[in-house]
Amino acid sequence: MADVYRALDDETRRLVLDELAVRDGQTLFEICATLATRHQRSLTRQAVSQHLAVLESAGLVVTERRGRTKLHHFDRAPLAEIAGRWPLPEETTPCAST
């Protein structure tokens, strides 16, 4: 779990996950372009690749190769594990007063 928290600690990595949540299966080039156009983050491909590596090592991003293309997918399972650790208490209905 510590890897997930460390990965989420960086704003750029959170933006990458936001964009993969909107459209999963993006290439490195597409992620770089989206960060530059939508978020005014002009990062090198190497810098974005390093952010993706951190997200992948935390289990938040899974990659898939299609020929020479590498696609990145958002895996929400680690976030569900965190949410499951501290579940919300069940809501109780207030007693009707008489």
How are the SSEs placed, and which strands pair?
Layout: H1 2-8, H2 11-22, H3 28-39, H4 45-57, E1 61-66, E2 69-74, H5 77-85
Antiparallel strand pairs: 1-2
Q: Summarize this, please?
A:
Helix content is 54%, strand content 12%. With 98 residues, the protein is of the alpha+beta class.
For the largest sheet, list the strands in their spatial order: 1-2
Give the termini distance in whole angstroms: 49 Å
What is the average per-residue confidence, as pLDDT, rounded to a whole number?
Answer: 92
Radius of gyration: 18 Å
What summary fits the major beta sheet?
Answer: 2 strands, antiparallel
Number of strands: 2
Helicity, in percent?
Answer: 40-55%
**Spans of at least 5 consecutive residues with low confidence:** none
**Helix-strand string:** HHHHEEH
Strand content: 5-15%
Structural class: alpha+beta
Shape: elongated
Count the helices. How many? 5
